[in-house]
Amino acid sequence: MAMCALLVAVLPMAWLGAAAGEKPRVVSLAPHLTELAYTAGAGDTLVGAVAYSDWPEAAQQLPRIGDAFRFDLEAILGLDPDLALAWRGGTPEAVASHLETLGIEVLWIETRTLSDIGLALERIGQRLGSEARASAAAETYRAELDALDNPLRNESDVTIFYQVSARPLFTLGRPHVVTEVFRICGARNIFDDLDIEAAAIDREAVIARSPDLIIAGMNSPGKDPLTPWRSTRMVETGQTRVETVDPERLVRPTPRIVDGIRLVCHLVEEEKFREPGARTAE
């Protein structure tokens, strides 16, 4: 009897809650994980999230626990979570280890490929008690992805530079899902030789690779993220075209990325029929 009491005393609280049929208390350590949790039907388990967790609207009301790379451990502990959703390839390992030492379970979610997104929905649903809704969301996403029958797929003769931010100048490398998006649309990420998801680069490196398209995320309303490029010779002569996109629909690995793929494919198709230098960038 004493042994049973001892075992109960040392069991993780998250396990005890699950055994009693209670929903776990969850914090999300990346904006796309917050969105995936809601899409998987498990948004009601979230008690905190990082900055920029802005979709769906309900996510905007969650208490903030830092951003995707810097976390407020005091705020996290104040929410008394059982589990943290961590981003494989983004959340620092040291942060996850620290949370585990504090008794918080860490569920790692990987979203490096388009197929990973469906798997992530299912994994979150299975762990957070919304398996049926998560499976349905994953199947809907896969059907939409399969419907993207692009005749230009894998041609890769249009080159694209994706700008995450202008100052500092950040882009995305080969492991990021955006590289696969470009490939589906018959284009190539000019920095697909970078073996990391995101990296700071210099302006001259972009100019040296002379992309056909520069696509920038509109991160700040009212500010033109393409201002540094508009005065360059490659843009002024029409050699390089510049466009802006909603980054949430292109680089955030959630089912909404299908909208981003459609946009990129449209831009690439336009580029296929545009003669370099035929017109100046708008």
Condensed summary:
By secondary structure, the protein is an alpha/beta fold.
Would you write up a description of this structure?
- With 282 residues, the chain is an alpha/beta fold.
- It folds into two domains: 20-146, Nitrogenase molybdenum iron protein domain (Rossmann fold, 3-Layer(aba) Sandwich); 158-272, Nitrogenase molybdenum iron protein domain (Rossmann fold, 3-Layer(aba) Sandwich).
- It is 39% helix and 15% strand.
- It has twelve helices and ten strands.
- The chain has helices at 2-10, 13-19, 31-39, 73-78, 93-101, 114-128, 131-146, 177-184, 203-209, 227-230, 233-236, 257-272, and strands spanning 26-28, 46-49, 83-87, 105-109, 158-163, 170-172, 187-189, 198-200, 213-217, 241-245.
- The strands form three sheets. A four-stranded parallel sheet has the order 2-1-3-4, with helices on both faces. A four-stranded parallel sheet has the order 7-5-9-10. It has a two-stranded antiparallel sheet with strand order 6-8.
- α6 packs antiparallel against α7.
- The longest helix is centred in the middle third of the chain and has 16 residues, at 131-146.
- The protein is globular.
- Mean pLDDT is 88; it is low at 1-20 and 278-282.
Please identify the structural class as seen in this structure: alpha/beta
| Outline type | globular
- What oligomeric state do the depicted chains represent? single chain
Uncertain runs are 1-20, 278-282
Whole-number radius of gyration?
Answer: 21 Å
CATH architectural arrangement of the largest domain: 3-Layer(aba) Sandwich
How far the N terminus sits from the C terminus, by CA atoms, comes to: 78 Å
- Largest sheet geometry: 4 strands, parallel
Number of helices: 12
CATH class of the largest domain: Alpha Beta
Mean pLDDT: 88
Q: What is the N-to-C succession of helices and strands? A: HHEHEHEHEHHEEHEEHEHHEH
Number of strands: 10
Strand content: 5-15%
Helix content: 25-40%
